[in-house]
Every structure is written in C-alpha cells, then in structure tokens.
Design goal:
single chain, mainly alpha, 3 helices
Length: 137
C-alpha cells in the first residue's frame, strides 16, 4: 500500500516541481518583456513626436517668413492701403498688379496651393488663384 501511495506522490511532486517554477518564470518573463517593449515604444513615440515637432516649427517659421515677405511687397502694401482707405473705390490696376505678383510667387513656391491677401473684413482682395478673389475667409 505504501508503494502505491509513493507511486502516486512521485509524479505529483515532479509535476509540481516543474510546473510551479515554469509558471513563475513565465510571469516574470512576461512582465519584463512587456516593460521592455513599452519602454521601446515610448522612446520611438518620443522621437517621432520630436521629429514632427521640429517639422512643424520649420513650417511655421517658413510661413512667418512668407507673411513678412508679403507685407514688404510694395504692390501688396499699396493695395491694402487703398482697400483700407476706401474699399469701394479700390484701383483695379493695383489689384491686377498684386494678383500678378502673387501668381508669380505661387508658381515659384511649389509647396503652396494658394497665396492671397485679405482686407480687414476677411475678404480676399488679391490672390495667386483668380477664383479665390472675393471669398470671405
């Protein structure tokens, strides 16, 4: 009887001795692997966010520079002065000259879809795209 009882205990003991450490090791491996992968993912997301942030800063700087250049173009300044003083009697020649300047600028700047100037009411008064004139932004 003792032999039968011993035969039952030995396999059970072996199973417990193998399975308990195996389960513990698997939990530890899972935990450490998930922390490692989360750390790698976080680093990658941070680097992507940094690259995108630099790209956006560069885009904003270029747009600011474009606005500064536009504000220094005498044709645009003359048109805005005329539209500010008397919007109803805005000179068509001034508008045509400003449109021509903006159209040339649009052709040279491949990344731009449209370049325009709006008056104080938000109505486009000059544009590199003739169809945009008169729209309220």
């Amino acid at each position: 009887m003792r032999v039968v009882l011993l035969r039952k205990k030995v396999p059970l003991t072996v199973i417990l001795l193998v399975s308990v450490p195996l389960v513990l090791i698997s939990f530890l491996l899972y935990y450490s692997a998930s922390r490692y992968l989360a750390s790698i993912s976080q680093d990658r997301l941070n680097s992507i966010a940094s690259i995108e942030g630099n790209s956006l800063n560069s885009l904003i700087r270029s747009k600011k520079r474009e606005v500064q250049l536009t504000s220094r173009m005498q044709e645009i300044v003359n048109l805005l002065d005329a539209s500010y003083k008397d919007p109803a009697s805005m000179n068509a020649k001034l508008q045509a000259t400003a449109n021509e300047v903006l159209t040339r600028w649009l052709k040279h700047s491949l990344e731009l879809q449209n370049v325009f100037t709006a008056n104080t009411k938000g109505i486009i008064i000059a544009s590199g795209n003739k169809d945009a004139i008169g729209y309220n932004i």
